[in-house]
Each structure stands twice: as C-alpha cells, then as structure tokens.
UniProtKB/TrEMBL annotation:
Molecular function as annotated in GO: DNA binding
PANTHER family named among the record's database cross-references: DNA-BIDING PHAGE PROTEIN (PTHR46558:SF4), TRACRIPTIONAL REGULATORY PROTEIN-RELATED-RELATED (PTHR46558)
Keyword Amino-acid biosynthesis: no
Residues in HTH cro/C1-type domain copies: 51-105
Pfam families per UniProt: HTH_3
Protein's recorded name: Helix-turn-helix domain-containing protein
InterPro entries in UniProt: Cro/C1-type_HTH (IPR001387), Lambda_DNA-bd_dom_sf (IPR010982)
Source species of the chain: Intestinimonas massiliensis (ex Afouda et al. 2020)
Keywords: DNA-binding
Length: 132
C-alpha cells in the first residue's frame, strides 16, 4: 500500500485509488466561480491611515503614542505612511490602546468592542446559570 497520490485531469482532480484502496475520493467538476462581491483585503497604506486617524482623534502625537505603547516613533511614522506593515504585535498594541478590534485596523470592519464584550459576558452568565 502506497501513499495517497493526487492526479489532476482537465478541470478536476481525483485521489488515485491504487495508491490507497480504502480511500475512494473523486472529483471532476469545474472550478467554483469566484464570488462577485467585494473582497476584503489588507492594504498597508489604508491601515496606516486608519491608525493615524485613530491617533489624531485621541489627541496623541506620534512620539506620545510611541511612548505609551513602547514602539519607536519612527516605526509609527513608517506604519502610518504605509512604508512598512505593522507586525502582529504592533497591531495588537494599537488595537488594545485605541479600543478597536483587529478587524477594524486590518480591513476597516468596525465593531463596537464594548458591545462585543457585553455579548461575551452575557453568554458566560447564561452558561453559568445553566450549569447551576
């Protein structure tokens, strides 16, 4: 008995049955159509502008923000201008400091953090009551 072997034929693929007799998966349909709806994606320039907007709305300079979240001010400047992408750690620091979700920072999908916290707390309360 060998390892499973995938074979591509035309617009589909199938798992070669001689490679693994107990697996008989076969697919030979067409490739699914790409959704026509607007796709969300990360754009470091837009994300940087969003961070800059949040910083200014809170009344912070780049230097004050850098000191508050322990990031170099030059790095914040580059992130805001879209020269570099913020790291995951940077995004988490910005998210916690500004009180927004990572979704909002990355793709602009705004969610009320306080409302989300309340929903989670309500769910926890319901589970605790159900267990008693």
């Amino acid at each position: 008995m060998g390892y499973p072997m995938f074979c591509f034929i035309g617009t589909g693929f199938f798992l070669h049955r001689h490679a693994a007799p107990f697996l008989t998966f076969r697919w030979s349909g067409s490739v699914p159509a790409v959704r026509k709806e607007k796709r969300m994606y990360y754009d470091q320039h837009v994300c940087g502008a969003r961070i800059q907007e949040l910083r200014k709305s809170k009344g912070y300079t780049q230097e004050a923000l850098a000191e508050a979240i322990d990031i170099d001010a030059k790095r914040i400047s580059k992130i805001e201008r879209g020269v570099i992408s913020a790291s995951y750690n940077d995004m988490i620091l910005f998210s916690e400091f500004f009180g927004v979700t990572l979704d909002y920072l990355i793709i602009g999908k705004r969610q009320d953090v306080d409302a989300l916290k309340k929903r989670v707390q309500d769910a926890i309360t319901q589970l605790q009551e159900a267990l008693m």
